[in-house]
Amino acid sequence: MNTRFSWFNATSVALGFAFLYIPILLLVIFSFNESKLVTVWGGFSTKWYSALLQNEAFLDAAWVTLRVALITATVATVLGTMAALVLVRSGRFKGRTLFTGMVYAPLVMPEVITGLSLLLLFIAIGMDRGIVTITLAHITFAMCFATVVISSRLVTFDRSLEEAAEDLGASPLDAFFSVTLPIIAPAIVAAWLLTFTLSLDDLVIASFTSGPGATTLPMKIYSSVRLGVTPEINALSTILISVVALGVIIASLLGKRADINREI
Amino acid sequence: MRLSRRASLSRCSVVMVNDPNFRPWDDPNTKPLIDIQNVTKKFGDFTAIDDLSLKIYPKEFFAILGPSGCGKTTLMRMLGGFDAPTKGSILLEGQDLTGTSPAQRPVNMMFQSYALFPHLSVGENIAFGLKREKMPKADIKIRVQEMLELVQLSELEKRKPHQLSGGQRQRVALARALAKRPKLLLLDEPLGALDKKLREATQFELMGIQEQLGCTFVIVTHDQEEAMTVSSRIAVMDQGEIAQVAPPETIYEAPASRYVADFIGDVNIIEGRVSTTKENAVFLDWHENEVSLSALSDQSFTIGSTAWLSVRPEKIQIYKEPPQTNNAIAGKVLDIAYLGNVSTYHVELSNGQVIKAQETNAGRSANRGIDWEQSVWVGWSTDAGIVLSQ
Amino acid sequence: MKPSRLIIAIPYLWLALLFLAPFFIVIKMSLSDLAVSIPPYTPQLDLSGGWEAITAYWAALDLENYTWLADDPLYINSFKSSLIIASVSTLITLAVAYPIAYALACSPQRWRALLVMLVILPFWTSFLIRVYAWIGILKTEGLLNQLLLSVGMISDPLTILNTNTAVYIGIVYSYLPFMVLPIYATLEKMDWSLIEAAEDLGSSRLSAFWLVTFPLSLPGVIAGCFLVFIPAMGEFVIPDLLGGSDTLMIGKTLWVEFFSNRDWPVASAVAVVLLVLLIVPIVLFQRQQQKLSEAG
């Protein structure tokens, strides 16, 4: 096996990772820059982090974003689990093609279209725009990602496990909660984390569907970035990247446990 | 012996499957445990089971044998309640099971994949069904211990399924399915995942456990040796229908059709026309210049009808000189396969048909002075073969 | 458990109401006219006016916005340039991603999970932040120019930021994992003895790659191209932050039309046209996904 991993392969991987990581690395390094000029090193400092902690506008936006992301991730994962069950288990039913279409289309739909269409919907039904509309919009596109993650696990799920549970006296619902759910739990956690970061990350859809008083962190970052590069944004980015990296490491550790379970 | 250690667990009387007196199917007064009545199962246009009727009696070790796609798994899934018959009904102790979910049936199944819950320990797997029964905790504990002892896994109660070997998983699956004391245990290719040696040992253990618990076992398998070893009766299936139901020795020695004869073990089949019948012996003309062949049959034949003589290779002797037996045919050795315990000779007859004759290598030298291309005679007695009408 | 009707109904209704229904509102809006009012369009449906009001409302809808789009070169050029930028960057992404995916598939088993995770990791970090990171690198006094000047490769700083080149870099960078992962997934499943068989039968390493490996990885390549091309067509953040004032992309045009010009009807018409352009690749992508998921 190892013989296939040639110097050419090693170079590809090294260059690829350099391309992927150097920009992020530079961003993190310059968040500790003493100088206000982001691209000139002026010595180590954490002053931009303390400045960030005193910036009320950022903190408010962070709080809004966090609330939206928590609710989005939870609701989208529940809906995504249901949709995944429908996709994998329902066989043929009336309107299946439409359903599959509605699940896969948001994955690639340009955000400007999703954002605009949802905004027009909220206006048409006379809903006040704010945190609620952003959350509804986020759940809608995030649940499709959750569906894909969970259904890919459900496809490989051995149905005889559920049959065994029912054979031993469990009702179908009992079998789902006591056997299926614990086994696919890692995929559900992964779906929750994915939808959480998708919501945390979204600028375009939030910009369309937000109203006065509901500014999310990406919206705040975007408006500052348009004015130019600032070390404060670098500091904020570094914090966000660390949070996400931590989450991914936890998720992949959970995934490892899941792999052990899957060997059966 | 192991069995004596386990004897304390046994609530039921010990009935030996191989006991020649255990023949409930011959007794019209015995009530069947399972009565399958004219069951048909269709998947779309495909008929998996075609108007099948079958009775299985208490304490039987019943084998359903057939090639893949013959409908044996479908039949088992209908017994377990996972599939519903399209037509017909299945009765358990006289009660119609139609509409009863798998959870409500006093029937448990050991899955081919074992279907052990990977997130639960061995003990929790075994206790799963007992908890659903709302059995008191203390009793569950006792029962789990009992089952673990039965399959000799007491030390592994806390292990997770992925920490077990294939053979151990198979035992856990068995213990889990037996824990609820089902009236009927279904085993779907239970030993398919084990290697040959382990499989043979486990077959005898399964028989021991079945005898000890006195529970009725239905095993689905494509492995004819396994079916012959463990079962009281075998149902050989062919394309959704039952070709024959009988004890193993009957299936082997008196197959009902060429399909059954060919499916179980090795066989020579010679086509011919019935020339005469005398008592239960039937004479077949099979080739213009050769003498008629004779064999026994329970069936009656009209003179001149086509019939098939079936004779097992181990019942055929090979001779260098013309022998004095009834069925002696001249031929030429085409091939000799030395298998250690036996040697198989492929002998070509004058009509081009090849007959297999199997000789036991009783001495250390397998050399009978018979060689390739040599002219020889094969022969067998009248009671060695059987004449089949289909 | 086979899902009950309720389990089918809940996600179905949610998507029908919040994903499908809004498209019809967008289509309706694209047939309306701009007006100085709140909300800024006419006609407004007034059901209290009875049947006449409804017919008058229908009569006021027209295709004016679409003729407007067809006449104004700004829109045509935005569509054209989006198409070019999305196609070219998809091809560049493929060229960059394939060797990485191939190397991952060849990598020793014990490193593989880690390497794959390292490819996915950037995808989890904020898109906006990753695009932002390139501003500091690409701008005139940025890190790339500093590096190139200091090693003497150039004597004058390059202008990269606010050009289409920066947009290409941004798209390739942001969408790279979307291309690597599906290709890796198909290559990883491939039976490597096929290559050995091809070589055994006399093909060179390179021709074995083109005749065996590449055709077998095509499902992954196609999925990856869809995953990059479709969202890149409607991309807003990258052309807005990295592109220049002459970088025309349809997502950006829509955004400007909506937020700066507050012309909702025209923005909707732009969205409808974009959707029509993307419907073919989206449907093809779904077909492929469905086939793959059914194949298990």
Q: From N to C, what is the helix and strand string of chain A? A: HHHHHHHHHHH
The CATH homologous superfamily name of the domain at 58-217 in chain A equals: MetI-like
| Overall CATH class of chain C | Mainly Alpha
Strand order of the largest sheet of chain C: 1-2
| Oligomer classification | heterotrimer
- Beta-strand percentage range of chain C: under 5%
Q: Determine the structural class of chain A based on helices, strands and strand pairing.
A: mainly alpha
Q: Per DSSP, what share of the residues of chain A sits in E-state strands of 2 or more residues?
A: under 5%
Largest sheet of chain A: none
| Fraction of residues in H or I helices of chain C | over 70%
As a whole number of angstroms, the C-alpha radius of gyration of chain C is 24 Å
Biggest protein-protein contact in the assembly = A-C, 98 and 91 residues
Q: Low-confidence spans of chain C: pLDDT under 50, at least 5 residues?
A: none
Please give the count of helices of chain C.
Answer: 13
Uncertain runs of chain A are: none
In short:
The complex is a heterotrimer of chains A (264), B (390) and C (296). By secondary structure, chain B is α+β, with helices and mostly antiparallel strands.
List keywords for this structure.
heterotrimer, B: 390 residues, alpha+beta, six-stranded mixed β-sheet, five-stranded antiparallel β-sheet, 9 helices, 23% helix, disordered N terminus, C: mainly alpha, MetI-like fold, two-stranded antiparallel ribbon, globular
Structure description:
The complex is a heterotrimer of chains A (264), B (390) and C (296). Chain A has 264 residues and is mainly alpha-helical. Chain A has a domain at 58-217: Orthogonal Bundle (MetI-like fold). Helices cover 77% and strands 0% of the residues of chain A. Chain A contains eleven helices and no strands. Chain A has helices at residues 7-30, 47-53, 56-89, 96-108, 111-124, 131-155, 159-167, 172-201, 204-209, 217-226, 231-262. The longest helix of chain A has 34 residues, at 56-89. The relative contact order of chain A is 0.14. Chain B starts with a helix and ends with a strand. Chain B has helices at 2-6, 72-80, 122-132, 137-150, 166-178, 196-213, 224-230, 248-253, 258-263; strands at residues 34-43, 46-56, 61-65, 87-92, 95-96, 107-110, 184-188, 216-221, 233-238, 241-246, 268-278, 281-285, 293-296, 306-311, 317-319, 327-338, 342-349, 354-360, 375-380, 385-388. In chain B, the strands form four sheets. Chain B has a six-stranded mixed sheet, sandwiched between helices. The longest helix of chain B is centred in the middle third of the chain and has 18 residues, at 196-213. Chain B has nine helices and 20 strands. Chain B is of the alpha+beta class. Chain C is globular. Chain C has one domain: MetI-like fold. In chain C, strands 1-2 form a two-stranded antiparallel sheet. Chain C has helices at residues 5-30, 50-60, 64-71, 73-106, 109-124, 127-138, 143-150, 164-189, 193-200, 205-233, 237-241, 250-260, 264-295, and strands at residues 33-34, 41-42. At the A-C interface, α1, α3, α4, α5 and α6 of A face α1, α4, α5, α6 and α8 of C.
